Amino acid sequence: MTYVVADSCIRCKLTDCVEVCPVDCFHEGPNFLVIDPEECIDCSLCEPECPVNAIYSEDELPEEQQHFLKLNDELSQIWPVITEMKAAPEDSDEWRDIKDKLQYLER
Question: Is the pTM here over 0.90, yes or no?
């Protein structure tokens, strides 16, 4: 099993989660983070650290967000690993409560 970063992270890209990961499974894109399912050890440390509740265990990923499992796998293969917290994007607060943000994902 793995953890999955879902829709809420898009354009927020808060990095509180990356510092607690013991296996460096987070990867960073321009405006989104993903988890490499091959590296994730299912430790659950990242989930409570996410201020926008964008991280789910694979078993608890909502039905309407299932496509993020494949997206995390795909993008983790091409985006670089991130291991340290970074400053949030300047407009991240404006995006926290917006739903259905997939169209804003930058690859």
Answer: yes
* Architecture of the CATH domain 3-83: 2-Layer Sandwich (3.30)
Contact 33, 13 (CB under 8 A): yes
Q: Are 88 and 18 in contact (CB under 8 A)?
A: no
The pLDDT score that the predictor gives to residue 70 is: 98
For residues 76 and 36, the answer to whether their CB atoms sit within 8 Å is: yes
How far is 16 from 18, CA to CA, in rounded Å? Answer: 6
pLDDT at residue 1 greater than cutoff 90: no
Q: How far apart are CA 82 and CA 51, in angstroms?
A: 18
CA-wise closest residue to 60 among 80, 44, 77? 44
Examine the pLDDT at 16 and tell me if it is beyond 90: yes
Give which of 86, 71, 90, 4 is closest to 40, Cα–Cα: 4
**Which one-letter amino acid corresponds to residue 89?**
P
